[in-house]
Amino acid sequence: MTTHSVDAVWKNCLTTIRQHVNQQSFKTWFQPIDPVKLENSILTIQVPSKFFYEWLEEHYVSLLSKTIKRELGEEARLEYRIVVDNGGSSQNAMTFNGSKTGKQQADKSRQVTEGMYGNIKNPFVIPGIRKLEIDSQLNKNYRFDNFVEGECNQLARSAGFAVANKPGGTAFNPLVLYGGVGLGKTHLAQAIGNYVKDNFQTKTTLYVSSEKFTNQFIDAVKQGSINDFVHFYQLIDLLIVDDIQFFAEKERTQDIFFHIFNHLHQSGKQIVLTSDRPPKDLEGMEERLLSRFKWGLTTDLQIPAFETRMAILEQKMLSEQVDIPREVVEYVAYNINTSIRELEGAFVSLVAQASLTRKEVDLTLAKKIVKSCINSISRDISIPFIQKTVCEHMDIDMEKIVSKTRKREIVQARQIAMYFCKQFTDQSLKKIGGAFGGRDHSTVIHSFQTVQNLAETDKDYHRNLIQIEKVIKMSMA
Ligand code: ADP
Ligand code: MG
Questions:
Q1: Does one domain contain both 359 and 433?
Q2: Is 107 buried (19+), middle (13-18) or exposed (0-12) by CB count in 10 A?
């Protein structure tokens, strides 16, 4: 067998590899490799980090293996040497033989990351400003003690509290919180973070929105500092990523997140994620990432019932130290039934208006404000708004009204909601039927007529209808 020079062999390998990967990947993952040794058909290459090695193994193992065998024959093997930078001048190298070995590997990776700590770039730090500790990026105002509990958020809250008391130590890892806009996902996720920060001083907590994460990753790619980026995230003990629906269709970001996720999960670190929809409805998300979520607990936050909305407003009054007559609070809580954010918005403008005009907060003012709030909400969501209002009034689950159920009280609520949709929105009959679990336009017409007939013949029914109409009309005025 002829003796090959290691550099020449590696140069040939690179020529082959270049033909199989795009330029960006080549630059990122292959150019930084140093060939160090070739002995007995074992080619040793030096890579800048543990993460780099894992990435190669995960994404390029078959390409590497084929290429090397082509150069050196079937016997050929690849070994990695990983640079550990201790922050000083001396460089240690660790050698892996290219096959993953479970637990041992995870321990070693910890060694590597800890060794790297001093040199990792923190993507949250603006260049020029030195920061020694990792700032959690948390908003201190989001806490468990000002998160009002109700049926709408009970499971999510108690799971969150369990996680906060034992980060990484419960079955809820990852904890995935989902729900519509303004229902408390960010509040709850941050409450977990703040609790851990206050009670476990040694743990590093980090809150990041998925958008920020994505942008940091893009910057890291541009600056050639992907390793630093990943290492930074691998140092975190509690990682909270808010609104992961923004990861959809961003394959490369998902890839890197998957990698960080696995590392953290394997090392017993806690992950908390939020999303505006259930994971199964996250289109453009990699299946392997979605399947990881099943390892933990996925739970939702729902629209709070009237009593919970009252409790939230009462708590707001307490913390803002204002006193608002009960009938006004009730009026606001009753009429704003879309999200807690809207509820808070109405409350804030109520207090602001009152102090601006030096007027008492009374029902007249409340009506004016609620009207403008609901107006701005209802313009584009009037069908769901009507459905919600009707369900709330008739004490029925939103889901049922769009389901196939033929139960009497549900059919009745469904008919009433359809009736108001036809009356108060400019949506087509087809669109309205569609919004009720895919029913057709003739069902809508039939419902409309039924409601009209009943209203003419049944007094109680009529009274009931008028009450609902009042609430809806306020938002349409
Ligand atoms: P999301 O992230 O789901 O869009 P947020 O967490 O931003 O919603 O909540 C919107 C607003 O409502 C925030 O000001 C938050 O403090 C408040 N809020 C949400 N849920 C609750 C709750 N259960 N108790 C008190 N305030 C809440
Ligand atoms: Mg949010």
A1: no
A2: exposed
